[in-house]
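Hi everyone, sorry if this is the wrong subforum. Our group has a chain we'd like a structural model of before ordering constructs, and none of us has done structure prediction before. Sequence below.
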Amino acid sequence: MTALRRISAQPTWLLSRANLRAQQILHDAFAREGVRPYHFRLLAAIDEFGPASQADLGRRTGIDRSDIVAAVNGLVAGRLISREPDPDDRRVNRLYLTAGARRVHAEMWQIAEVAHARGMTVHVDGARFANAVASLDCAPADIAWRAGVDALSLGGTKNGLPFGEAIVFFDRRLAEEFGRRRMQGGQLASKMRYLAAPWSSVLQSGAWLRYATHANAMATRLAEGIADVPNTRLLAPVEANGVFVDVPQSMIAALRERGWQFYEFIGATGIRLMCSWDMTPEIVDALVADIRKLAHAPVIEDTGAARK
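Answer:
Right subforum, don't worry. Here is the predicted structure as tokens:
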């Protein structure tokens, strides 16, 4: 046996190689999300000890003062933590885990655990995924693979793109047959690059989140404008770019006569008003004005709102 083989057979050598391999696997897993192992140390410290100043985090994690500034900035940019003034000393910022991300992550993980325990995979219909990310102010991963999701259909046409949706597989084994299935389903375009190019632009420029944030803001503006209109009732909180409201049937007909397009979504009088990525405040205000005007029309039928 050669000297090299004798060394390679030593337990210490094998343990050191195993440790290097484990570190590489861990590093690759973090890199897929654009973070590093020391980012996880910071997040774990906040989760265990609660909100803390940047200096306290450095002491607890052992990360050098010269490195922690960049690390924290990266986590803030990724919407994994937020900075808020210390209530006891406004000169100091405390770092918090994103509350919305915590809640949604926990809910989605519960669903994923049930599915995975039964041998099923979890798919998220992400037609309005960008609106959810914008509303929760979280990192996309927080309501995707970190929450146990295996596949995500990422909406493009409802967020400013002329055509095309993206399918994202977090479990790459599920993608092995997808190319063939796409072809069999007639979804393989001869010039696929023309569908892919707009995605590159909106993702790299951040436009996909800007568009979603704007659409959400227009929905909030609409809901606030009609919240106190007589004989109407908001059916759900506004959490993205949709407003669900119960209105009289006469108002539904009158709004359509004025050119407004929408769906009856809940019963005969519950309508869904969606605000698109290119909706303008002027259009929202015009709709609010018409709803307010029609609410005082002489004929108003009984609605769910009126009964309640």
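For your construct planning: The beta strands are 52-53, 81-86, 89-97, 123-126, 151-154, 166-169, 233-234, 242-246, 263-266, 270-274. Residues 11-31 form the longest helix (21 residues).
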